[in-house]
Specification:
The chain is built from 1 helix and 12 strands; from the N terminus they run H-E-E-E-E-E-E-E-E-E-E-E-E. With 157 residues, it is mainly β. Strand 7 and strand 8 form a beta hairpin. It is globular, with a radius of gyration of 18 Å. 20% of the residues are buried.
Length: 157
Amino acid sequence: MRNILVLIGIALLASSCGKQPIVQYFNVPDRIWAFQKPVDFVVNIAKPGYYQTQVRVRYTQEYSYSNIWVVLDEKRPDGKKAGMRFNIPLFDLSGSPFGSFAGKFYDRNYPDSSVEGKPLILNFPLAGQYTFSIQHNMRIDKLDGIAEIGIKLKEQK
């Protein structure tokens, strides 16, 4: 019986190899994100296909707005570019933050299926190096209270 459990455990580990998400974060200096300072991420896509994509924003109570507009630009290995703009709600109408809370930081993954209802699925038709650039698209230059920006890609099954 114990041997069967060990074999099942090994099979589960082997089946999950290669399916781990790609996660990268950037700490925003002094928690002030300037419009002129987009955050760049270089990601190696080993297997072409569809990936569930999330943008992560870590923020504090010093952030003055209920949402944040961001632009996500993508540059493919063949040089082609694409971009999209998102309105990410950070606080609900009562002032409660979306996402999780740890200490004085709030973490918001966008899209979150419990808030937005559906994931963001991007197609990566080529293997190779992709460059993502995330820039805030608010009406003011510098945003106080933004501590970290991140991106997460997980291969669809």
